[in-house]
Structure formats: structure tokens, C-alpha cells
Amino acid sequence: METLFGDQLEQSVASSGSFADIILPVPIPKMFTYKIPRSLKEEIGIGYRVIVQFGKKKILTGIVGKVHQKPPTAYDAKPILDVLESHASVNPVQIRFWAWMAQYYCCHIGEVMNAALPSGLKLSSESKIQLNPTFDPDTCAYPLDEREEVLLKALQKKEEMSFEDCESVLGIKSIHGIIKSLVIKEAVVVFEQVKEKYSPKVENRIRLTSNFVEDKSSLEKLFHEISTKPKQEEILLKYLQEVPVYRQAGLNKNGLEKKVLTDAGMSTSSLKTLIKNGVLEEFKIIVSRFEDEAGSDSPIVLTHKQLEAQVKIKEAFEKKHTVLLHGITGSGKTELYITLIQEALQGGSQVLMLLPEIALTTHMVSRLRQVFGSSMGVYHSKYSDNERVEVWNGLLSGKFSFVVGVRSSIFLPFDSLGLLIVDEEHESSYKQYDPAPRFHARDAAIMLAWLHQAKTLLGSATPSFESFYNARTDKYGYASLDKRYGEAQLPEFHLADMLIDKKKNLLKLDFTRLMREKIQEALVNQEQVLIFQNRRGYAPYVSCEDCGWIPECEHCDVSLTYHQFGEEMRCHYCGFREKVPHVCPGCGSSKISAVGVGTERIEESLSLLFPEARIARMDLDTTRSKYGYQRLLDDFGAGNVDILVGTQMITKGLDFDRVTVVGVMDADRILYFPDFRAGERAFQQITQVAGRAGRRGKKGHVVIQSRRPEQAIFHQIISGDYRNFYLQEMGERQRFFYPPFVKMIKVSTRHKDYKTAERAARHLHNLMAEIQVKKILLGPEKGLIGKIKNQYIFESVVKLDRSSHAQAHFKQELQQQLEALQAEKDFRSVRFIVDVDPY
DNA sequence: AGCACGCCGACT
DNA sequence: GTCGGCGTGCTC
């Protein structure tokens, strides 16, 4: 009976039309069902980009996730307005990948879509107004004021106007009221115009009209005719010189860039005349934003060690999907990557290589460019949106089969990935923090590889403990490169005790005697120095010397960061800024001074200690512009800088032979960070920066300043004993239940009211405690930063059993609990943020 | 997330 | 009296 009824239902539905579940870029945990109009029925499939109306006003780009015959019961589905392309923009593997990501990282598929599509592929709609055709100013029941009259006049000429047009016509900013009143008076109507944001780059070109190409004698005749007009003759000669049509008639088809002629100082008016007389014609073509470059085919010759590693990797790939390549700095991982990429490409597969953002502008990319030329796409966060869309489309069209890119390039539309490489796999910048999806690109890459049945190679000089653990437990394959390239030697390490120097009065402006001596030596020998301090700005904060008062942000629970520029204090969380007061508001003292050390301050100290040295600084503040980073690198490479002070950034990709001294200003700052990964991170960062010292021939020196130089970690770093360090730290992690022995999930609760935030967090905590999974639950505690942007934060940490079953179960339950909590009216405005594998 | 609907304070 | 504050509810 039931089946029969079901069948009948199916049938009646099938005749009533098809439906599509559409992924929309909104943070709502579901897809939305729309009707497929009969006219679009043949043109729609999974992964197609469509336009739909969402809510009363919004027009959105959506991606078809599913096509079916089941009409929604509770509501009437709206129709799909249009299909944007005749092909799927997003392939089925991508959709599965999105779905996995939403599930694994506890976020909504719309949020994944938002992160995945370059904004150039998302539509924007613009509100425009137009005259109401039924409107007659003479019979209008309402009087119109002056401005309204002006707008209506303008509209009669232009037919339609954007709000911005209205602003410029009236010369005022607040036009909303006027438009609203005109709408009420039924004089105009407002409508939404949908726009594609991506615009291809168009080039103006010039070519001979066809009659001069087909018939050679006509060209001779032409030259004869214009011999009295030298300007025109010059243009024609230039054209024929650039485009030798007489030798190869086909060349004329693509013509010559107009700019070539005008830039060469040819007369534009003569050019116009030639066009007018039908000799030349102007046309437009769509060109790539990326320059064409040929790759070199000079084969890469691997060293014996590299070959060994290569064989090992390939053997491991036979049995494992993922292989960890543990190669110390300067061991030639790049060459190894190149040969593997070439092989994969020759096998007809696509290749994706991930790099941390700061490494992407360097050496590695130019090296790859040399080999792969313009068949390699580069996907960088500093690229414009149009450029990103071109990489996206280049992949769809087959122009690129190899892409190097940052974290977000895992979302590009690959359809046949064969190999993924994650270089500097341990880098924490692979984890996206702030907007959901809070994913880790390395882990997501491994999943993506699985979906494509591709292989993943993780490379690092200092692997993350997670990856090393996976290699040791045989989940991943393992290969190592432990010999430096050429005759490069390991640097000599020096530990400098800051406390002892301070007692002996040898600590000058935060520099120990040893550090100063080594720098001096390098300067005398005309060698370069790198100074590493993991904090930008001048000094972390200011403080009153008399009463200890420290200024704090009004909206967040943090002290304000001091910036020397403008004598200002800023909040790094909400952007609040304030002038440094002249007198302490607590005690009236005027002794307010900067405390702590940032790169800016070190730069200043260095110029006092070494007045003759040329000093530069490299941090977020000096490299914000698109080429700022490259300029600094070039300057340093050219030897125009003696000492370079910097944050993390200097640990990447700098490959200069003349660096002989590397200084770590404050190793304790990294080591005593309140996080279980602090040790691992300190090891990685110090090892990485030390790797910059003394590459070819000359031995380098690394000076590490610390208040407790006797700690074991320093000796492990010095001897390069990653293994022992790992084993020791892992002992701790196992004892105290930290990853990789457990799966961590952090849940934050935010609300503007302290009590509500706390209550909601408690509530959630209790609900989580009831989920039947092996786990340890910590919290809820006030966040490390208790308040951000006037929102109080409480955090619970879940340490879960590692089994995927436990994880899936817990996440599913958690999602349900969260939905239920949000439905309670007390917690309606509370925000819950789930961060899986927080970093 | 946005955006509309709806109920209470300071302005013409 | 109204303009506008943001609490709350919904989006196929």
C-alpha cells in the first residue's frame, strides 16, 4: 500500500517538473530547493552556476548540488532564474570535496563555497532605478521637490541609473531618501541588475585588411601610392617588420598590438587615416593576463642522494597514498619535486603544489617557472581577482595542468589530479583561522588526493609532529634527504645567556655581547646578517614606570600595541587606536615608556649599535604592497643591505650566500608560548632560520639569545636531533593527551553579555559531556583573550578518541546540539564557533 | 550573513 | 506626533 502510494507520488511529481538543490554562499546549514524551469531543463546539471533569487531582495550565484524530482512539501520552490554557462563550473569531485570539508570542519557547505569560488565567479547585483513607464509628471498626485525633478530629468536621458550615478548627478551622498520618496510617488522603479565581476583583458590590435594579404601586388601598389606620405609609410613598414605577412600570410590574422605602434612614436592620426582608408583594421582580442614564457627542457640532473630519495618516494607511493619527504634545508628538495611533477604531467595527470604564502614569491616559483614556463599557473593571494579567475578558467580549458599556489588553491577545478605536493608541510599558515571553513590545507589536500586517487608528497625540513607520527606508524611512506647540497656546511651554533649578560651589564639594547661580536665580525668581513624576532611593531605595549599601568583596548581584553609611527597605540584585534597619553591616567606620572621588543625597535637599536651598517626590516608592515617583499629581497640579494631584521618571513626562501650570521633575539618568546605546540614550533622556527646561515663554502654562525640557555631543546636544535626532540615531546603529548594522540576540537562561545556567554558555554559543555564517545572535556574557560570586539569569549576543548568513527559521531551530535541551542531564545544571539584541529 | 518586520526613546 | 534604534525570525 505504502509502496504503491509512493510510486504514484513519484510519478505525479515527475510530471510536475524537476528540482535542484542548490548550494548558496550563505551560512545556513542546508541546500535550497529551486524549481528548474522547463526552458532550462536541458541546460542544467550538477556543478552548474545558476542565478537565483534568495529572500526578497538578494540575487545570488549558486552551484547546483543535486538534481531530482522531489518537490518540497512545506513551501513553494522559487524558480532558477538563469544558467550562467553551458558547462559545469564545479566538477563532481569538487562538490564531494566541499561536502567533506563542511562535515569534517563543522561548517556549512555555503561557507565552503564562499571560500572556494574566487569572488570573480560570484555575481554581484547592483541596484538601479528607471522611470516608471506609467508615470506622468503632470498628473502626479504629489508635488516633486527640486532634487527629485533633477533626477527625473537625468533619467529621461539615461534610461537607467545606478545609485552611484544618482549621487554624482545630485552631488550629494545620501540619495536613499530621495529614491525612496520617488518610489512612493510611483515615479521610478528600482530593479537589480546582475553583473559578472570577471572581465577578460582585452587588447587592441591592428592588422592589414584582407585584400592586401591575399593579393601581393595590391600591397606593392599601396606602397607606391603612399610614398608621398612618410608618416603612413613608416607605420606600414613597422607593421610589416613586426608581422612579416609577405613571408607567412597567416601571421596577419593575429595582427599586432596597437600599443607597439603607438609606443614606437608613430603618428596616431596617420594610423587613423590608414584605418579609415581601409588599409589597416582595428580589432580586439581577449588575451591572458599572464605572460607567455617557454619552459626550459634542459633535464634536471639529480645527485646520488636525490636519486635515492626519489626511488624511495616512488616505492612508497606503490603502497601508500601519502609520503613524507624529510629533507633538511638546502638538500635540494626542489629538484626532486620538479622531476616528480614532470613525470606526473607526462602521465597525463594534473599537479598541484602548495606553498605557504610567504614562500610563494621567491626562488622556488622562479625556479619552477624556468622549467615549466607558462604552462604553470600561479595562484597567489596578492593576485587580483581577475587573475584568479584566469587561473581557474585556465585549468578548465586545459591551459594549465600544473598550479603552484597558496592554501586556497586546493579549491581550483582540477579534474584529474595525479600528484599533490605540500611544501613546508609543517607551516601553521596552512590552517585557516578566521572565516569558516577553518581548514588545514595539508589535511584537505590529502583528502582531495584521495578523492582523485592521487598521491600526496609532504615536504619539510622539520615535519609537523602529526606527519612524522603518521610516517613512523606507517600510515605514510617516508623518505629523507639529510645531506646539504654541494659543499655547504652546517652552521656553528652559539647560545647567549641574556640574564648573565644583563648582570654583568653587557646586555646593550637587548643584544648580548656574543651577538654583538658576531655581527661586528660579519660586518668587518662584508658579510650579511639576519636578525630574527617574532614580533612586529616597535614594542608590544607601553607602561607607566611608576604605577605599572598598561593601556588596554576598550572593546577587547588585550593590551594595546604600541606603534612608533604617530605615537599611537592600536588594538590588533579590532583596530581601535588611541594616542599615547602624556600623563598616566592612574597616577599622573609622566614616565610612560615602551616595554618589550619588536622588529621596529630592534632596527632602531641596531642603527645605534652599528651606525655604519645598512639596515633593513622585513615584516608584515614593510611588505604589504604587491612587490614590497620582492623589492626587499632584491635589495638584500644585491648586497645593498648589511643587516636584515625580520619576523617569520626571513625564514623562508632567502637563499643568499653572503649571509654568515643569523641571530635569534629572544628564543624564550617562542618557547614559552602558552600552547602545547610551542616546543615543536620553536624547534621548527629556529632550525629554519638557522638554515639561512652560511650556505656555500663559508661556515655560518647562529646566535640564540635566551634567559635559560641550558634547556634541552637548544641542544637538540644545535645537533639537528629532530628525532630525539620528537621522541621526548611525544612522550609529553601522550602523557597529557595532546595531538596526535587525540583529536582536538575547540568550541568557542561568544556573546556581548558576559553572563549569557558564560551560561551558553556551560550549557553547551554539559550537552557535549553527554555525547557517548571516548573523550576528555576541558573548560569552559574564559578565552585566552577574554573579549574581542565587545564580545565575551568562552572556550571548551574536546580531546577526542582518534578513530574516525568517534569523530564523525561526535561532530554529528555536536551539530545537532548546536542547532538545538541556537533555537532556544536565550541563546539566539550567541555565536558558537567550532574549530577542528585548531593550530 | 543580510534583510524585513516590529515595538520603544529623542527629535521636528 | 514621527524617525530610527536593534531584537527576532526567515531565507527554498
UniProtKB/TrEMBL annotation:
Binding site for Zn(2+) 2: C553, C556, C571, C574
GO molecular function: 3'-5' DNA helicase activity; ATP binding; ATP hydrolysis activity; DNA binding; zinc ion binding
Originating species: Cecembia lonarensis (strain CCUG 58316 / KCTC 22772 / LW9)
Cofactor: Zn(2+)
Pfam families with a match to the protein in the record: DEAD (PF00270), Helicase_C (PF00271), PriA_3primeBD (PF17764), PriA_C (PF18074), Zn_ribbon_PriA (PF18319)
Family statement: Belongs to the helicase family. PriA subfamily.
Gene designation per UniProt: priA
One GO term of the biological process aspect: double-strand break repair
Name of the molecule in the record: Replication restart protein PriA
SMART domains documented for this protein: DEXDc (SM00487), HELICc (SM00490)
GO cellular component terms attached to this protein's record: primosome complex
List of residues binding Zn(2+) 1: C544, C547, C584, C587
Assigned EC number: 5.6.2.4
